[in-house]
């Protein structure tokens, strides 16, 4: 842990002091190669997405990273292009997302914790109607944890806040981001998450970590889950793509955060990976595999601590490749 954080901290100090870090193309490729090894056969979608973005950041001919999802009005896409059916994934964890974006409901003895609130146009269809279809009551949603304040993950929070009185949990920096942008879907400021924040509801505690990078207030989460009564621990990396372009400070944050959360995952023994995009955690194949699972078959989301940690190594190495290319 110390060695990993020392490298990231050194980069942060250099960036904060205004020192220009000049790297060669070979350094970029070294990090990309390390990310590819870490990805193996498990995290190819993550590697393909963000290491390509890393190389584009340092090469204007290949384009720049995007600016993230803004809050302005946009047409609502047809339902058939995004709707996905709700699925019970663990005894106490439910997928309530869309074809490309995820929301996760954690059921407890005293209500529901929702992780991410997808879009404003899809929240009623996927979360409210999805919970109802699964025999659960959307009025039991007590907390809505927002991984980061982009429309595709926070757009439905205001709806749940106003309709059911659910309390929104978000980092201060991302509340501030929405205050500056002031989109129509901005939720009221409720609970401000702090690093290591333990959010307890009934018999369940989820732990929130501030992992800035994708946004300055990105939250990553550890969630205890059960499969047929057997305990596991799920890790959710809160923000993934390099949507901020050639920004040294944000890349430094990202590098630090990926290394730190990897250490947290390893020390906690998290053996399940969930993401807020269905391609990153393999939900597009794991959900159908879960539906076909027979008694005695392994759970497709239980992948082991090493595999979960390698996911964060991919993120860490691709971010270093992006920084090395500047």
Number of alpha- plus pi-helical segments: 10
Straight-line N-to-C gap: 26 Å
CATH class: Alpha Beta
Radius of gyration, taken over Cα atoms and rounded to an integer in Å: 19 Å
Structural class designation: alpha/beta
Uncertain segments are 1-22, 62-71
- CATH homologous superfamily (4th level) name: Ribonuclease Z/Hydroxyacylglutathione hydrolase-like
Mean pLDDT: 91
Summarize the amount of helix as a percent range: 25-40%
Strand content: 15-25%
Strand order, sheet with most strands: 1-2-3-4-5-6-7
Shape: globular
Main sheet summary: 7 strands, mixed
Number of strands: 12
Instruction: Please name the CATH architecture.
Output: 4-Layer Sandwich
- The SSE order reads HHHEEEEHEHHEHEEEEEHEHH
CATH topology: Metallo-beta-lactamase, Chain A
